[in-house]
Amino acid sequence: MSAEPLLRTRVKFCGFTREDDVARAVALGVDALGFVMWPKSSRSVSVEQLAPLASSVPAFVSRVGLFVDPSVEAVEQCLPHLDLLQFHGDESPEFCAAFGRPWIKALRMRETINLSEEAERYGQAQALLLDAYRPGTPGGTGEAFDWSRIPATLAKPVILAGGLTPENVAQAVHQVMPYAVDVSGGIEASRGCKDARKMALFMRQVALADVR
What we know:
The chain is of the alpha/beta class and about 210 residues long. It has helices at about 20-30, 45-55, 70-75, 95, 115-120, 170-175, 195-210, and strands at about 10-15, 30-35, 60-65, 85, 105-110, 125-130, 160, 180-185, 190, 195.
């Protein structure tokens, strides 16, 4: 009788602004790279900056564009450089599905949220990204939320975000057992500039947590 295969938690690093950081993350084996296309973010890049960053990403690493209540035109001009769309605002399911790309919906964990209902509403999403809630801030807060609020079973894969660091990600993986983890500030030297040591340690901690 063969043993059950080990689970592997996927890893997305987000908020890239420099090609050297992209290359380092790829070398470490990250599954996806996120590029912030929301102009109000200190980690945002323009379409002109996105093009060379995205073109440096090799096959089998997903290029993800992060949007917050964008116009149709804002998304469409980024499509040649992206494999996956990530929506962090109040976008409707119809809007998210309108671009012919796989997409994920970020949900901020406000007290009144019903994840089962949201999973049904965004039924065409590839996954739900769960992030901390801070009024007026659509993401990137660097804050964690109470992971025990996540149901043990949900109709969609869970991407866990919000305040993850090399120091707490192993605990997060053990407790939540998410499909993937998403980190930005927890692997930075400064806003938009990644720390090579933190990236490597984060990947190592996820890998160690997966041996269960």
